[in-house]
Design goal:
Number of helices: 12
Radius of gyration: 21 Å
Oligomer: single chain
Strand content: 25-35%
Length: 392
């Protein structure tokens, strides 16, 4: 937007980079096109719910509140819907590296964007065969993938447990080596180039006559020709008073960071069995995973993070885990795994960009370009119909 010649003010209640991007797995996955609510995932949900260390947990006090969202989630996972959702995810994610390039070109942090490929590993042939539907979906959308046997896995990741006998290499994937540094440097560059940042909480969005939108914050009111709502898991609260209701939920994610790890893979490694993502970061090896339903207000339950420790040791038996930091963040998720991108219903001066769920870091760069195109009245080259808020 700044490059298009607009006067741009970024309003954030927190310092830049303190949201869910601070601690995510850092994945940049142009081939990510599998909805979270796929039939294969739904089949495993009951088992995960009764496993204290499993990848999915719903706090008992939140269960009734989660039921409506979960019902929509199950509906989105019906087989006849998967192809359309996969097409929309692939369309949004496929150019993540190309769209990050101009953002980081003059920031001094281009080295953070690493196109190393990523690796998905399985312990058993049965587990690998059970994921065939996912690989078929990717293959049908021209996602490059290569099957690796146990010897090839050992050559690529020598410290990986030999219990992992099967793997899929996704050579066009990669990662951000420090998401927190990236989300600090980008705002610094934005300010250097003429943008403004206001540290304030927005309490209300008020449409005015003539297409102007007024933002009420805890520090001032601001009138703008266009407003972009990209408040992550908190976006639905700001939309509701405008008569726009969307089923946005926070899927709380946890990570552990092993500082100065003695074993560092050369690329991200995903355990398909445990649903754990191991990423070699600048300051250590990060293990991220788990989904927790507990809302926006509940305190973190760091037992969810601690459960990642044995899973990390299972993946890398020789890993020395002496110093570990823990983190929890709020993934903004919609039940069909697609974000909301586009003009708000009945409010043409308000542009929506939130709900990317597990694909936030991947989808961010393309979403930014699309938002700029919407405000400029340019065609984005992406069919925005699947991402409209009106689909709910």
């Amino acid at each position: 937007l700044l490059r298009d010649g607009h006067e741009v003010v970024l309003i954030d209640r927190d310092e830049p980079g303190e949201g869910c991007s601070k601690g995510n797995a850092g994945a940049l996955s142009p081939g990510s096109c599998i909805p979270l609510s796929s039939p294969d995932v739904l089949r495993n949900v009951p088992k995960w719910l009764f496993d204290p260390g499993g990848p999915l947990h719903i706090r008992p006090a939140y269960f009734l509140r989660a039921i409506p969202w979960l019902a929509r989630f199950v509906a989105a996972g019906r087989a006849h819907r998967i192809d359309a959702l996969a097409d929309a995810l692939r369309s949004l994610n496929c150019n993540t590296f190309e769209n990050y390039a101009p953002l980081v070109a003059n920031t001094g942090c281009a080295d953070l964007i690493r196109n190393t490929g990523s690796l998905v590993v399985f312990k058993t042939e049965r587990g690998f065969d059970g994921s065939k539907r996912e690989w078929d979906i990717r293959g049908a959308r021209q996602v490059r993938q290569q099957r690796l046997d146990a010897r090839a896995l050992s050559d690529l990741v020598p410290n990986l447990s030999p219990e992992y006998r099967h793997g899929i290499l996704l050579p066009d994937h990669g990662y951000v080596a420090d998401p927190h540094r990236l989300t600090n440097v980008l705002p610094e560059t934005f300010v250097r180039d003429g943008g403004k940042i206001m540290r304030s909480a927005v309490s209300r969005i008020e449409p005015l006559a003539g297409g102007i939108t007024r933002l009420h914050t805890d520090g001032a009111t601001i009138d703008a020709e266009k407003v972009v709502l990209a408040a992550g898991a908190w976006s639905a609260r700001l939309l509701a008073p405008l008569g726009v209701s969307v089923p946005l939920e926070t899927q709380r994610g946890y990570h552990i960071m092993v500082a100065n790890a003695n074993q560092m893979p050369s690329l991200p490694v995903v355990s398909a069995d445990a649903k754990v993502y191991a990423t070699p970061m600048e300051h250590g090896l990060r293990f991220a995973g788990t989904v927790e339903f507990a809302g926006l207000e509940a305190a973190p339950d760091y037992r969810r993070a601690d459960a990642l420790v044995p899973l990390a040791k299972d993946m890398f038996p020789g890993l020395e885990i002496d110093t570990v930091t823990r983190w929890m963040g709020h993934r903004p998720c919609l039940p069909d795994s697609l974000p909301i991108i586009g003009t708000a219903p009945r409010h043409p001066s308000l542009v929506l960009a939130f709900g990317h769920g597990h694909h936030g870091m991947t989808g961010a760069s393309t979403t930014g370009r699309i938002v700029a195109d919407i405000i400029a009245g340019r065609p984005s080259g992406v069919d925005l119909t699947p991402y409209r808020a009106e689909r709910f």
